[in-house]
């Protein structure tokens, strides 16, 4: 009687599961190398597929990058933007969103490289448009919260909301760049609250009401 064991059955994965695993692999690999040098062969190897099998799920590299950009946009909406909706006061919502964004980047350090890489590419690919639209929506979200804070007298009415939104996003981007230079993205979560306090100092002082 043979002791030979039957071959193990391969776990079946749906197209959606394969696509999700591939997108996550791209985000992971972008933390380790320049996204512009990331090949489909390397991606396929990371998820245990042949290049031919990979292209069954994504017709070409551009469609894969579009899916990755869409995933990033969706994650920002679910994990960062939605945090603001949990707070009654706009200033608290802004802080929570700031910290959630830094936490998101700390867990997925490949995302800044990926987004910056797309913005630097020539042309106007679908992935690039998604990144631009995501950043524009982010800016509008910040401006809307600042205006709400002004309305509720939690933020000084003299603040330049357009400039403040640029500074808000710039603070996040600056933190990320410093983390990349230092090689320690995860430490940003400890630094982020201090940076936000400096930002928020610009709008916390409410002018005294005029005397009757």
Automatic annotation (TrEMBL):
<dbReference type="InterPro" id="IPR001647">
    <property type="entry name" value="HTH_TetR"/>
</dbReference>
<keyword id="KW-0805">Transcription regulation</keyword>
<feature type="domain" description="HTH tetR-type">
    <location>
        <begin position="16"/>
        <end position="76"/>
    </location>
</feature>
<dbReference type="InterPro" id="IPR036271">
    <property type="entry name" value="Tet_transcr_reg_TetR-rel_C_sf"/>
</dbReference>
<keyword id="KW-0238">DNA-binding</keyword>
<dbReference type="InterPro" id="IPR009057">
    <property type="entry name" value="Homeodomain-like_sf"/>
</dbReference>
<dbReference type="GO" id="GO:0003700">
    <property type="term" value="F:DNA-binding transcription factor activity"/>
</dbReference>
<keyword id="KW-0804">Transcription</keyword>
<dbReference type="InterPro" id="IPR050109">
    <property type="entry name" value="HTH-type_TetR-like_transc_reg"/>
</dbReference>
<feature type="DNA-binding region" description="H-T-H motif">
    <location>
        <begin position="39"/>
        <end position="58"/>
    </location>
</feature>
<dbReference type="Pfam" id="PF00440">
    <property type="entry name" value="TetR_N"/>
</dbReference>
<dbReference type="GO" id="GO:0000976">
    <property type="term" value="F:transcription cis-regulatory region binding"/>
</dbReference>
<protein>
    <submittedName>
        <fullName>TetR/AcrR family transcriptional regulator</fullName>
    </submittedName>
</protein>
